[in-house]
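Need a sequence for this fold. Nothing fancy.
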């Protein structure tokens, strides 16, 4: 992935001949799915109403599944916009009294009555620029293009250490991974928001389905297997909000991890049977099974102390000849992966960012408990509710606290993380007493990660 990225880091998607964005103005439906998003709903609706497009060929669907005052805020916002402006896109408010299918169900419900030939989707915390359609509809001059995905930016990237770490983590996905998959002609996915679909591609691929927690990944794979081409524009950025609480972050990661495994179980047989090139099948296999790293990391953490005694018996020479090279090989590519994301994703690097890169390893290790739970839940085919990530409307300039009623639930993984923090600390003490000083930095990554998750999780319980 890194090699492909290096070759294409400055490449841009080619724009097919034609001027679809400025002459024909095909009908576009913008879908805005909401569920209890009172902090950000009004901001998004007002933003998309200012899009540069022919108002006669633009429809905004407000797909509201809310059970709180968000519904009242949305309807008041619509009324206020109609009073203030003579010319507006068509605003269609669709309120469901149930959450069947969650976000995918809401999108499918709206699709039934959507007038648009193209469907743009934005999550509640997005803040797209006014030229989103004029810049990205150009790619659809190619009739084979089924979806265009833009890159995420982050409104509150510097709000806290957790947000800085997530920025680096997600930049690695968007800047390196998505860019490499697109220019490497591999399968890649719609990220659930900040993208545009050709309606025909959705319908031809079986529509939105809600038998996985990652309906975006599921539809993406089905569409590409049907022959639809995707475009990824790494240069167009849509700002979005990062979770600013550890419970919300873990809830989001749980959904993404479990949904990826569910999608892999569902889609991989079709991928293996398809006629796509072997290298694409191999890349798709690693893409859809990447979450299996979490149980391995968790097991590694459990085996820290036994490994110390076993390796001591083996002698220091074997430790240097076997363990050290394997450690470098195993961590080198990951370090390079995130280093490129840091280099090309952070324009204004500060002293605080110096600590983010090494700390990201610790957070990835600690996240293994949460994601292992998701992994085995998916393997056992246990159904889970779609837990939306709480939004506060935070930006770097204006940090906001999530309302208490919006807190993500604290689950039992916090107790396991606390136990592993104590266990990994004991591993540090044992290694020190054995004079295995060169293992201390490695062992410290486990202790720091589990300690951080434990501390933040307990503090959020106390606040609640």
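Here you go.
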């Amino acid at each position: 992935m890194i090699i492909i990225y290096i070759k294409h880091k400055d490449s841009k998607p080619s724009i097919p001949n034609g001027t679809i964005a400025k002459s024909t103005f095909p009908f576009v439906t913008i879908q805005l799915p909401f569920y209890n998003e009172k902090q950000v709903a009004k901001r998004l609706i007002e933003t998309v109403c200012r899009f540069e497009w022919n108002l006669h060929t633009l429809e905004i669907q407000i797909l509201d599944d809310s059970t709180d005052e968000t519904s009242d805020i949305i309807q008041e916002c619509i009324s206020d916009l109609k009073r203030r402006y003579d010319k507006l896109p068509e605003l269609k408010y669709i309120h469901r009294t149930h959450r069947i299918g969650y976000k995918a169900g809401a999108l499918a419900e709206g699709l039934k009555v959507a007038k648009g030939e193209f469907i743009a989707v934005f999550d509640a915390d997005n803040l797209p620029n006014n030229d989103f359609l004029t810049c990205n509809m150009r790619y659809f001059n190619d009739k084979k293009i089924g979806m265009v995905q833009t890159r995420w930016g982050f409104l509150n990237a510097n709000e806290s250490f957790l947000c800085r770490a997530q920025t680096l983590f997600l930049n690695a996905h968007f800047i390196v991974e998505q860019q490499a998959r697109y220019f490497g002609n591999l399968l890649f996915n719609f990220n659930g928001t900040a993208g545009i679909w050709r309606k025909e591609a959705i319908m031809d691929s079986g529509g939105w389905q809600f038998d996985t927690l990652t309906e975006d990944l599921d539809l993406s794979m089905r569409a590409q297997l049907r022959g639809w081409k995707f475009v990824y524009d790494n240069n167009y950025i849509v700002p979005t909000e990062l979770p600013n609480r550890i419970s919300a972050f873990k809830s989001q990661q749980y959904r993404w991890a479990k949904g990826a495994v569910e999608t892999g179980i569902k889609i991989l047989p079709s991928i293996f049977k398809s006629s796509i090139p072997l290298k694409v099948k191999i890349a798709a296999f690693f893409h859809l099974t990447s979450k299996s790293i979490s149980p391995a990391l968790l097991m590694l953490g459990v085996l820290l102390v036994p490994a110390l005694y076993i390796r001591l018996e083996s002698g220091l020479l074997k430790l240097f000849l076997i363990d050290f090279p394997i450690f470098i090989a195993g961590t080198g590519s990951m370090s390079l992966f995130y280093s490129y994301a840091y280099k090309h994703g952070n324009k204004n690097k500060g002293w605080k960012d110096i600590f983010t890169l090494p700390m990201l390893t610790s957070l990835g290790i600690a996240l293994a408990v949460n994601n292992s739970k998701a992994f085995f839940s998916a393997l056992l085919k246990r159904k889970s509710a779609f837990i939306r990530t709480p939004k506060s409307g935070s930006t770097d300039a204006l940090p906001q606290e999530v309302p208490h009623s919006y807190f993500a639930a604290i689950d039992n993984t916090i107790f396991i993380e606390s136990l592993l923090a104590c266990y990994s600390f004991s591993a540090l003490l044992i290694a020190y007493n054995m004079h295995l000083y060169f293992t201390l930095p490695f062992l410290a990554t486990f202790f720091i990660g589990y300690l951080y998750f434990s501390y933040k999780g307990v503090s959020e319980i106390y606040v609640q």
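For context: DSSP finds 17 helices and seven strands in the chain.
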